[in-house]
Fold each of these.
Amino acid sequence: MRRAVGYALAALSVFLLIVGVSLGGMDVVWLKASRICLECVGLG
Amino acid sequence: MAEKRTVIQIFWAALSNGYLAGFRHGRLYDGALKSFCMPGLNCYSCPGALGACPLGSLQSSLATKSGVVYVVGWLFLFGALMGRLVCGWLCPFGLVQEALHKIPLGRKWKRLPGDRILVWLKYVLLALFVILLPLFAVDAFGLGTTWFCKYVCPQGTLEAGVPLALVDSALRSSLGFLYRWKVTILIVVIVFSVFVYRPFCRYVCPLGAVYGFFNKVSLYRFEVDETRCVHCDACRKACPMDLSVWKDPNQMLCIRCGKCKSACPTGAITSGWISRPVRKKNPQRLHVSNS
């Protein structure tokens, strides 16, 4: 049963990633991650 | 097992922060890999970081109300596949804490006093600093901020704040109270790590809290063969997180370091990606219930 839930969650994650990519999620993450995060550094 | 894990931890930490030119020039890597989330807590503002921190990305996407589905997809993927195996094997900050804990200084503790209450702190931080505040504490433009990164995360200070301040004089001259606050948190975590095993992972880390939710259902899992277990509690004595593995092999706090497997005198504890059926103590009863 738990293994089935694990497989279901893994499948759901792939679905979320596909939807997320189609909604431009990769660009959002890249935009944040490729510039210095002032909050992380302690300047925000 | 312990040596193999340490090698993998070091290899993964080096790979995650493999953009060495960034450390020299104080510039971040901005290639295509930064679109992908890494499994562990690894600040994307570290000059060497090749990928994005899933926790920072989650806060950022919630604060800007964009990209949330994509980041949650990564968290679900890592969680469903590995659970807190990520914490034990692939988290650079876990490696730092373990290295500090090896310093032969004073008495070593597995738990802090007030552990039963303190273990809930990471869930409070997850709900408040990672989800609710970035989502609802917004400015005039409807944008929030990354509260956990800004006020708590010692990994950001260690990997990004300190190295960037060292090489970037302009940045160094603008540092103020917030930087000192974050350095103080980092120092507290460093000091505690010398005496307590992975205090940040046990009490503070919201990413560990997220992966902990997946521990019971993830495809990589621990199992106890009840026909071989003699309930000697050797697993608990060996467990750095102080867990009785024979009672529940996939507890939310388990970072899956595997020390219990080596310590078990009967070899009752196994782990793997595809679980094998666990033999029950009373096979006749199992047979009846199946028929």
Amino acid sequence: MAVVSAGAAQDSSSSAAEGREGGTPAIETRELRKQFGRIVALTGLTMTVRRGEVFGFLGPNGAGKTTAVKLLLGLSRPSAGEGRVLGAPIGDLATRQRIGYLPELFRYQGWMTAREVLALHCELARLPRSGWPAALDEALGLVGLADRSNDRVETFSKGMQQRLGLGVALLGQPELVVLDEPTSALDPVGRQDVREIIRSLRDRGVTVFLNSHLLTEVERVCDRVAIVDKGRVVAELAMSEVRRESGVGIRAAGLDPAAIELAGQYGPARFDGEWLTVDGIAEDRVPALVAQLVAAGAAIHAVMPSRSTLEERFLALLGTEEPTGPAEPPGSRKDDP
Amino acid sequence: MSSLQSIAIVARLTLREAVRRRLLWALVGLTILIVVVTWWAFSRIAEASPISGATQVLGISQILVMLAFMFSFVLAMTAVFAASPAIGPEIESGLLLAMLARPLRRTEVLLGRWLGLASLLIVYALVAGYLEIGAVALATGYVAADPTAAPPYLAAETLVLLTLALTFSTRIASVAGGAVAVVAYGLAWMAGVMGGVGEAFNNDLLRTAGTATRLILPSDVLWRGAAGALSPTTDVLSASGVNAAIYKFSPFSGAAPSPEWLLWCILWIAGVLACGSFLFRRREL
């Protein structure tokens, strides 16, 4: 996929500043509730998404994520509560012109070509007809479908259809882009492309609401995340804080209780017979700790800095924390499926 | 963007889909085939029994009305098959999600769908209807009582079925909605026959049942208008020894609907579309 065009990038700096400093949040909900008969899909969603940030919306299956997205876009009516999107009440028709949306269940007219689908959405989004050719070319280029633009959508693979959906969502330089599981059908290259697109949107000051259960995807691109469970936000986290919470794992032999107590002065420490884990220690203090351990007679075999992961926080918040083990070496973390 | 523009976008999309999916070409092909077969068959009939006496004219007219009945059935089925998958399956597949996230109301989608399909079916009914009537006139020389009025009545009857099937499509699965619309169409025709019998034999119960059914689904009112327009003139009936008063109540005859009935048909279509809009707006996507 290509990088965003220069013209768009130029616009971005001003709109980015404008967006981040804008008076109203991009999304603001208060006790938003949705009930289907006796089933409560959203108990009471309260959250704020600032202008210009990439906001991750996380939660286990059935937490009400997609229901929340549909409420925000006016595709479904709330049973109670209130919300505003781009300063207007949710469901406001005119505001939808400024929103791009990639549904989780993406499907487009199979009998149309990719270019025709995009043109249809240009028309629906009320874009001036004179700007269509440029908008179509830019969207097709961004999502890597320029060479298939005149092929019928029914000949596309699922991944290509998702790319097309992303192109549809990006048409018309929207102020808010809502992406519901945007990489579910993509290969690793496609996921990387989507991450690049999201970063370029952030650079242009576009607010991105990313609904995903792929924690590593979210971790790599989001500024803040909300974790929802049972239809309610259980935590809002700034990714910078999550990343700051670092620690170190030291594989050592000959550690006596006094040495472990010494390590405890740097942060909460535990030793499982092979690995000594110290949480919350700043990186620049690790050499001093290692020197003190060596001086105390320990044989150090390995030192592995570890970072707190979003997955750990996610599991802890949902009460399904995995048993604590040795510090996870950097680079060994597995991507979500 | 006004509502009318939004409706026009969806209507154009519907028409483009009909062309691209070859529905239009299938209808054109079938029309040509039917007109050629009609012309050929009526030519053979005319050759075998030259149209001279009133009885022969009556016979030709009855075959033409039966042909029109079959055509009205084909139109009704086309309307039902085109309209039944127009909303529901597009919700279930997710196709409408991306569209409705744009500044587009659900009512505009419904009306756009209706307008697109209605345009297609009206043109088909008028073109095919006039060609068939023309083919019969060319082959036999038969001129019905009011031949130009019949195709518009058939087109209007198609709109009634289209409206019903499209409204069902907002809430019921396409197969179930289509089946119910077809059964309703058949029942309305049968109730029309019963009402005709009640009228002919002055039976209040049958007459009331027929009228009530026509109010619920006015397709038979319009079919009777088409059949009446294709029937022979009163002079021909008299010359054939047929009691015109009794003839007009046969299943394959009729009379032009009154202005009140035509107004009811318009109100019925508007009301059922309003109902479809309400149901669609209440549906969870």
Amino acid sequence: MAMNGKGYLDASNLPVKEFDGIIVGGGGSGLMAGLQLAQSGMNTAVVSKVFPTRSHTVSAQGGITCAIASADPNDDWRWHMYDTVKGSDFIGDQDSIEYMCQEGPATVFELENMGLPFSRTEEGKIYQRAFGGQSKDYGKGGQAERTCAAADRTGHALLHTLYQANIKAGTNFLSEWFAVDLVLNDSNQVTGVIAFEIESGEAYFLKAKATVLATGGAGRIYKSTTNALINTGDGTGMALRAGLAVQDMEMWQFHPTGIHGAGTLVTEGCRGEGGYLINKDGERFMERYAPNAKDLASRDVVARAMMLEIIEGRGCGPDKDHCFLKLDHLGADLLHKRLPGITELSKTFAGIDPADHPIPVVPTCHYAMGGIPTNVHGQVLTQQTDGSDKVVEGLYAAGEAACVSVHGGNRLGGNSLLDLVVFGRSAGLHIEDSFKQGIGISDPTNENINDALKNINRVNSSQDGENSSTIKKDLQEVMQLSFGVFRSAKNMEAGIEEINMIRERTENLYLADKSSKFNTARVEALELLNLLEVAEATAICANERKESRGAHSRDDYPERDDENWLKHSIYFKETKEVSKRDVNFRPKIVQAFQPFARTY
Amino acid sequence: MNSIAAEQVKTLKISIYRYDPDVGAKPYMQTMDIDIPKDKDIMVLDALQLAKEADPTISFRRSCREGVCGSDGMNINGKNGLGCITPLSEAVRGNKLELRPLPGLPVVKDLIVDMTQFVDQYKKVQPYLITDKENDGKEIPQTIEDRDKLDGLYECIMCGCCSTACPSFWWNPDKFLGPAALLQAYRFISDSRDVATEERLDQLEDAFSVFRCHGIMNCVSVCPKGLNPNKAINEIKKMLIKRAV
């Protein structure tokens, strides 16, 4: 049904396309799930608002962290697990982290077998580099080299390899289709999504027995971010509007090295290869903050140290508002071999060649540790009134959109790509199994479908009001100012007030262009509504978590509070209230790691 | 881009190809003046976003805004390139910036072209590793030297700048595979792990797939990643000729 003019979409004449499973999102986790389902012979579709290789996985640089024991034959997935638990500041779920670290090696070798052009060692094995927060022997054996790399283009190599594998498997793509909202039936089972083909503007009900949200991050809630313009939290917005829970939304990672001014990412692999940060005096300041790991402390630690240097007047440049990442001592040969992409990006966005000059960098919004809560099978969980978990039937989530939670309060570098492939796969496996056993999802009523059409009908029928781009800018500004690296109640409360006003303004969101074909203004208006949900959840959860843990750092509550906050935060849109959820301390194979003071 | 104080701006005349399939009228060039920063170089994509703020109906693709996703291939003052990594200082001539869709492919709307033909040609070269290896839970070993052979080939972002700059592709987009697909073909031929070289060459052995390349080299001059599809094509031609004699 074409969207044209101010016409309403209605369930009674909305065409239906029916699948066994649909995957919303064509990045790493979506393509991994898609591959699994295509190989199983199920009737599936990967629904992506961009051609799959345009997804943000393509921008990952440094690598995929995994104990494949290439650089160190004694490496052990349990050490990786320990590092990840510590990195999470102890609110990562240990059953999930164990699963990821243990399953990882088989998955990385499988990606290599698919064709991923990893860099190589002298022995012809996969090259691994040092990354932040990675240790040997449970923190006692020094820095580990565990991050498997294809130069500094690992995400590109991974995403293209997965796309190619999906071509081979004959996966069905709905490319440049925008998913709007989940369709829930009267039993609150998910029965598919409302989506439209962007090129034609034709809207459909994509009906499925299993729906996977693999929609990636939402870094565009901030003004300065490493994230692609498409990272607007579409799946998270859909889940919130459907009345489902989100988890740990206050936990946003600020990557230490975004290019000053441009926001584009400079991989942690630069420091893994021997680069380091300096302040205006040329001092290698991380030695003061993290005497052992120095520049390879975990990201939250490095980002805070950089901000402190800047706040205390030791920043670089005329405005003393950034630090320098020094690479010139590594030599042009190494930069050419291991960091060619960084050399390119530095020339384009900072106007310098890192072989001669340090790169101006500043902590920049990079990654959502929080998201839609799931179990290790990717099944989406929501919280019941008594505080217990409940599986949302028919719905899965994987990758950055999900919170499984392997990253807890702070993600370690290289763990996002591992998360993508391991949990994209596990969601696919679970769907395949469930399908064999028979999935009982009952049909939605027309009323159910019309509920899911409300949002898009509101945008399509808007008569006058404000354009999405101005509202979006204001939202990004608030988030940047009030919910950055350092947070305080005063700032956050003011930020929440402003977000309330922005929400009121979105009630008057006006889509002036009502045309049907490739209407990017419509897409951007719908994206803004998703950004708003993510931003508000972030703001309220951040204000509610009264402690400092992982990436969440408050000057009014500077200490970690394990007594009250060794917990996930859970948030619902309807009540705008935050409740707590237990962190999993029950891994299956190893003994749980108990919290200790986190130093690097 | 943020709104900029008046004294810090200068005016750029931007001219954008417009075609609205809903209306179906003839395409035209829409020209407008936009304010850009006076002392700071911005990218073509930034300028285009500013134009879209003034007229939200302007349509174009964009995603990573850092030259790795390949969304915003377009014709910039007569030359194909990526909007996000082409600075105005490089692109603008006589204070004018003219943006058109990639040439040779059907236009869907404004700067958006239908990439189907381009992707179909990519799919034809079996762009995936073919091995006879059992899944034994290990990597296929590859020497550093063998891995080096993939440099300059695997980095393609499928933006389409090369194939749509190629007169041979314009002429036979269905039969000549085009530089992007051929670069990909050679990427797998060159991979020491791939066992299907002969099969791959069989598929390329006709008058059109490869041999319609006449070495015009537009592909090389426009590739935003600095790749050299022409060299890859020549290598394939050499292999085909060597096999034939």
Amino acid sequence: MLSSEILTYVTFVYGLSFLLFMFYYLTKREGVVIAGDIVAGLGAAAHLVALVIRWIVSYRVLEDGHIPLTNFYESLIVFSLLLTLAYLVFRLKTKYLFLGAFMMPLPLLALAYASLAPEVERGIRPLIPALQSNWLTVHVLTCFFSYAAFAFSFVVAILYLWRKNREKSILPPIKTLDELIYRGILVGMPLLTIGIITGSAWAHYAWGSYWSWDPKETWSLITWIVYALFLHTRLMAGWRGTRTAVLSVIGFIAVLFTFFGVNFVISGLHTYL
Amino acid sequence: MSSIFKESLEYLRSLRFTVVVLILIAVVSAAGTLVGQNQSPDYYVTRFGHRGYHILNSLAITDIYHSVTFNALLLLLIANIILCTVAFAPKRFRGAFSRSEPTFAPTETETFTATKSTEDIKKIVRREMSRPSRRLVESTDGDTVRFSAFPRPIFSLGAVIVHLSILLILFGGLLSFLFGFSGDMALKEGSSTDVIVFNDTAYSLDFTVRLDEFILELYEDGTPKEYISNVTFISETETEEASIMVNHPAVFGGVRFYQISLWTDLERAAMEIESPDGDTLYAGNVFPFIPVSLPEEDLLVLIVDYSPDLSGLGPAVHLFVRNAGREYGIWVTLAEGAVKIPESGGVFIRLTDYSQVFYSGISAVRQPGLPFIWAGFILICIGFTFPLMGTGPRFRAVIEKSKAGAPTVTVSGAPGRVAVGFDDAFHTLVHRLKDTLC
């Protein structure tokens, strides 16, 4: 399939951008990061094209085509693109050069896993009745946008924890890293909230119940609670630094369990994704 | 006594209590997903052993989300949200609707001399400092004009709105729990009922639901495409036809009907019973649980179960057979042909045809709290976007007439809640003003 072939090349393009970002730590030259950004941007553009092709192809091979957001493979390739976009938005909004080498491995791994893992079903399948809903797009996209924002905060939180006891570093000051963690969560939290709310509204139409304590629902709530704790402790109790960085790491572990863990460990209503 | 009450109230509304309750809710919720909920005792015994099951069951962990402990935690959370919202909301409301200009200590200041007239400077400053998310306040004091731009105070209401919307959602849920209902009904084509079942208890609706037709649409590869129940709602005063599909519930009499499942069962089986001599003793349709009796042969046959595919052998019926005072249970498949009834001296029984009937699983739900839940949903989405808009920087521009006559512009600023990006924003503003004014 053409889209899969493009995504294979995109994996290598992301790999190249990662190497360029690593090279920055050897050369300390801004131009290397800009080159890496351009390569990552081109990869993201091709990634988007591959998704659109898959979407178009679904209308050819199925009676009713659908947006590529309906199974584990599609969620991985969309998440991978959103992770790259999160990095690119960060670069457009700030002047910091440090993040690429640490952020790009995430979309690279997600895409490589989606493309190579034998257990991941890559075919385009028709939609079962429960998935035939307009809520699907907004629910899945907002959830994955929030996951990408939380992934950004997680990476910066890990860097914060590594940086905090070092006097000199190529990384920005810990105060800046601390604020970046907060900024990622400030973006991710409304998106996760909208994701949960739209999922809940969809469940209302599909199953007649807003909330069924399905494991995926429950773990998304747990994730939401962890980030709610982050916001409360930061804004009301003035927590900064190590404690909020650790909360960000815990939050992303909850995200990963919501995304992957629930599917592999626990069965429930979300078995298709 | 009042002091203890006051201290308890203080603790209930404290951030420490919020943190404790949220952590407990998260931990209990996680435990519920890992243990598994409302499964059969066998499921728990297999996973945790008899002792483990006994412990889990006695602590209500097998139905944790409906347990007293979990609901008590939710109540404590509600109390905490109400008390802390009551404590901080008035101040936030006053701030949100205040017309006064907030004060700030600038961290960056830059002054330059402009070559334009004061009126032109004012126009340009207005244009450069205005943003939809900012309030721009302009004041004049003699020859001095001040512009202040800061996040709109209404954005400080984000936390209040989020808290109120959580309460609205929980209140809506409570209303539905107290005054609503939810139950399931199973209907086969042509049948009707006014009974719904919830937790093994039957409840009656004020009207009857008749399933006129059930349609199962399949894709070419056999995957289900659509389940459609065409029903008729019949009350004393009106009759209404409707289609119920997954994601498209029907509403009648304030009750929403959802397509939640379907299954098939045997409608009738065409069977033949032959004597040892090969004579046909019976040939015709047999219906589930309606016996076929052959007194001359001292034989009674009754269909008690049906499998669409018995161990890969295809459709099969499970028969209860009584012959000469002895009773047997035998499976007869469509594929394997005639089956000899044991101890009967050679009477054979054969399944020659069958037809299935669809049962449509429909959930009937009445939720009086629905408007509150929707209002809460919309408000929480709005409330969470407010902090995003309210974290921006504060800027000030002061236009003064210098002694030389040319106006000077002093731009100052301070970061908002998020300092990252402030330097860029400040210097971009200054450069743009300089480019157009100097």
